[in-house]
Amino acid sequence: MNQHDLINPHKELRSVLGTRFSTDSAIRDAHARDASYHSGALPDAVAFPKTNSEVSEIVKICANYSMPIIPYGTGTGVEGAVVAAEGTLCISLNEMNRILSVNADDRDVTVQAGVTRLQLNTHLAELGTELHFPVDPGADASLGGMTATRASGTSAVCYGTMQDNVLGLTVITADGTLVRTGGRARKSAAGYDLTRLFIGSEGTLGIITEITLKLARLPEAIASAVCAFPTVDAAVNTVIELIRSGVSLVRIELLDELQMDAVNKYSGLNYEVAPTLFFEFHGSANTVAESSKIGGTIASAHGSGDFRYATDETERKRLWRARYDSYYAALNRRPGSVGYVTDVCVPISRLAECITKTKTLLQNSNLSASVLGHVGDGNFHVVFPLEPGNNDELAEAQQISDQIVDIALKIDGTCTGEHGIGIGKRAALEKEHGDAVDLMRAIKHALDPQNLMNPGKVFL
Amino acid sequence: MNQHDLINPHKELRSVLGTRFSTDSAIRDAHARDASYHSGALPDAVAFPKTNSEVSEIVKICANYSMPIIPYGTGTGVEGAVVAAEGTLCISLNEMNRILSVNADDRDVTVQAGVTRLQLNTHLAELGTELHFPVDPGADASLGGMTATRASGTSAVCYGTMQDNVLGLTVITADGTLVRTGGRARKSAAGYDLTRLFIGSEGTLGIITEITLKLARLPEAIASAVCAFPTVDAAVNTVIELIRSGVSLVRIELLDELQMDAVNKYSGLNYEVAPTLFFEFHGSANTVAESSKIGGTIASAHGSGDFRYATDETERKRLWRARYDSYYAALNRRPGSVGYVTDVCVPISRLAECITKTKTLLQNSNLSASVLGHVGDGNFHVVFPLEPGNNDELAEAQQISDQIVDIALKIDGTCTGEHGIGIGKRAALEKEHGDAVDLMRAIKHALDPQNLMNPGKVFL
Predict the structure, then answer these.
(1) Beta strands in B218-295 (DSSP E)
(2) Which of B360, B369, B374, B439 has its CA nearest to residue B160?
(3) Is the N or C terminus of chain A more exposed, i.e. has fewer CB atoms within 10 Å?
(4) Among B106, B190, B194, whose Cβ lies nearest the Cβ of A414?
């Protein structure tokens, strides 16, 4: 598209948005990529709508000029789902950041897509609702982005993923139509589940502008614990048995010995350098005490070291801060590095096998990478700290990531538990779902016949 | 379609299925309708495949002859989703009744679509897994049918609906292709959520032949209780407060005074004839005792009568049998009647208002109908025992049902919490979702361009 062709859409977009339409190169650069190694070109412009009707107008203008659209939340994704290209318009949802309604009796809330999860939880605390939004991917991501990527994170073993916590959506479709899916009822059997079709569609079917979310009750009591194990197997078997025992586990994270070493160094801690589980139990004071005791007994039967408890809030926060900082700790193993991170998810009975095979691959490679994961879901990540611009390292990391996907798929797993497809896992999606990807393509074509909504993401 | 045109598809279908292809009029009649008042014509034939490849062959033959297909489970639906028409082939999934794999460590199971929920739970008990499939719509429905209609029922307040409990599907699409969606991983961010698109699609997008389900741990202890209230408001407020208190409620059912009178008469019980809650608490022995105590205290604060407990299994089963038999008890209010049942679901804070307005409508009508529901989800049913063949009564029931939907939609509810759309709620779906129904149509057209998969159901 040459400069002449661009004059009209830009002019029309500026007439809708005024100064909230930008072609400034620094702003375009800030919206060109996500938090990962994936690179792209700059978008031609960035739009900052505040309302549904503005998004609708923008989409209609883009449809008229066949200008592709890339929606942008906080840019904290890692598979390149928001990576830009020349000739595209980035729609930042950043200024759609209003909390529209809170219904405490119904335990639901409706927010604009740019509201972040911490913003929401702060607001709920300020209102004194005793409710929170529990899905926690680590980053303070926007709820629109979390919805679009079907995010999950550390608490999914208890609360589920975005798929389980979204009741309804407002979406602007490819022709600029405003559509409301789902609603505020806790359940509905009214037609196709469009809500869950848009969840995880990574902006390829329409732009999510508002989300109605379920809220959860704040726990009465919380206890955390950290416990080292002789092997990954022992740690995973502890988790399988813990889940079977029915204790109220809210978070259960595994960090391998490399990751523990990184965490100790980055966060100034002194944990044993061994495969380690981080636990969090919620419930009444009694339940939490009972759960922690059961946890300690089961871990000990699997040869664990001491069960280090933390019920005090400061100590708990310090402990989980270390977990949240894991990604940066992993990169800090090699100062100045750029992160390549992959994730797979397998049935938990096969998790130890999958991690062991992954670690063998890593030992036989030229790269060093740490492993950490949401073990209760069978989901783990591998973080490679790569030298920026080193294409050999990048190619090797990609090759190992492909091999990890192959291992996971062979044992009934999925190529991504929570990071999504973006541009990084398109080939893996084909491997995993085969003919089902043709159904996805047919749906995409039906809902976006011009292929303007985040084109090239999820599949080609 | 005249007899001549039918010779070839019938011949081809018989060559695939042998005696499992039937044109017997009694068999066709047994597959012409569901459990409700909705009537249809007989299908031309009924097929009883046993395998995925047989279903695929059947679908390919039907596609070739443009013969519409209606999948059939146990026929226990109530909105006419399996109602037949002339010129159609009914595919009964009844002989696809094998449990394909049970993975106790991963708490998942894969079944053929014709397996019923009691068959599955009996099998899990026989294996000694200490696991069960918790979604419980009352009827011993097939798991394929429950998936296709996004069924829920009494335990959804704790375990969610089919939407929350299906991990993956095998589907034969409209051109006979076998597609696998989702998988055995507890979560996945791999592409569009086709699994949830098929859940609740009522056979209009493809035929679900296999389902991978999450299983839940059997509770250590169970306690039930029954408690009468002066008003529906008092009962609903008790539930709102109970949920807020965080007790482990598994079932919480509301029956109005007409329904309690019907239950007393039908099941030989002597409960007070007043709005009544049936509770079920699960957990450890301690938790259950604690929960029941909290339940009693909250109910009493809302002016309830005695909290009648039942921890003994026989007593519990008798009590819940009465709840399960509610539909028959409601019809027994008028011996020889046929049931017209409707359901809506609203945010729980608006439930009392919705039921009160509904009861006013009923009092001003010529019909008598009882109200019962899954109050924890904000979902309730109205059961009209109608005189068979009385079109005036049917028209009045339909008109009242439309008005109940209008009330529900005005207060952010949905036209059906769990019964689905079928043919009975198509107009209601349009009212509720407007432009979103056009997206559903676009998806239907993309996946079933010949409109052969259960045509005319969900929308026209």
Answers:
(1) 221-228, 249-255, 276-283
(2) B374
(3) C
(4) B190
- Nearest Cβ partner for B200 among A163, A185, A192: A192
Q: Does A110 touch chain B (CB under 8 A)?
A: no
Exposure string for B236-258, b = 16+ CB within 10 A, e = fewer: bbbbbbbbeebbbbbbbbbbbbb
Cross-sheet strand order for the sheet of B206-214: B99-103, B108-112, B206-214, B166-173, B178-182
* Type of residue numbered A104: A
Residue B98: closest CA among B152, B149, B135, B142 = B142
Inter-chain contact B177–A446, Cβ cutoff 8 Å?
Answer: no
Amino acid at B447: L
What the block records as the tokens of B243 is 């949920």
Radius of gyration of chain B (CA): 22
CB A419 within 8 A of CB A148: no
Pair A57, A37: CB distance under 8 Å: no
Tell me how far apart the alpha carbons of residues A17 and A92 are, in angstroms, rounded to a whole number.
12
pTM above 0.80, yes or no: yes
Which residues from B are below 8 Å from A199, CB to CB? 193
Task: Return phi, psi of residue B429, to 5°.
Answer: -60, -45
Q: What is the DSSP letter of B142?
A: B
Q: A284 is written with which tokens?
A: 């009444």
In sequence order, what are the residues at sequence separation of 6 or more whose Cβ sits closer than 8 angstroms to the Cβ of residue B268?
A: none
Chain B residues whose CB is inside 8 A of the A191 CB are 200, 421, 429, 433, 436-437, 440, 458-459
A348: chain B residues, CB-CB within 8 Å = 105-106, 186
Best probe of the B interface among A106, A146, A157, A188, by most B CBs < 10 A, is A188
Residue in A105, A200, A284 closest to B189 by CB: A200
Separation in Å, CA of A80 to nearest CA in chain B: 14
Task: Determine the Cα–Cα distance for residues B96 and B49; give it in Å rounded to an integer.
Answer: 7
Interface of A with B in 324-383 (CB under 8 A): 345-349, 377-379
Q: Report CB contact under 8 Å: B347, A243.
A: no
Cβ B374 vs Cβ B416: under 8 Å: no
Q: Decide if A153 touches B, using CB distance below 8 A.
A: no
Residue of B nearest to A169 (CA): B436
Identify which of A106, A246, A421 has the shortest CB distance to residue B347: A106
ipTM above 0.90, yes or no: yes
**B420 and A240: CB-CB below 8 Å?**
no
Q: Which among B156, B188, B436 has the least Cβ separation from residue A181?
A: B436
DSSP 3-state of B98: coil
- From first to last of the 460 residues of chain A, give the pLDDT tens digit: 455 555 689 999 999 999 999 999 999 999 999 998 898 899 999 999 999 999 999 999 999 999 999 999 999 999 999 999 999 999 999 999 999 999 999 999 999 999 999 999 999 999 999 999 999 999 999 999 999 999 999 999 999 999 999 999 999 999 999 999 999 999 999 999 999 999 999 999 999 999 999 999 999 899 999 999 999 999 999 999 998 888 888 999 999 999 999 999 999 988 999 999 999 999 888 888 888 999 999 999 999 988 888 778 888 888 888 888 899 999 999 999 999 999 999 999 999 999 999 999 999 999 999 999 999 999 999 999 999 999 999 999 999 999 999 999 999 999 999 999 999 999 999 999 999 999 999 999 999 999 999 999 999 9
Residue A434 has phi, psi (to 5 degrees) of 45, -120
Tokens (6 digits) for B91:
């595919």
Residues belonging to chain B: 460
Cβ contacts of residue B148 below 8 Å, gap of 6+? Answer: B71, B73, B81, B198, B199, B200, B201, B202, B203, B208
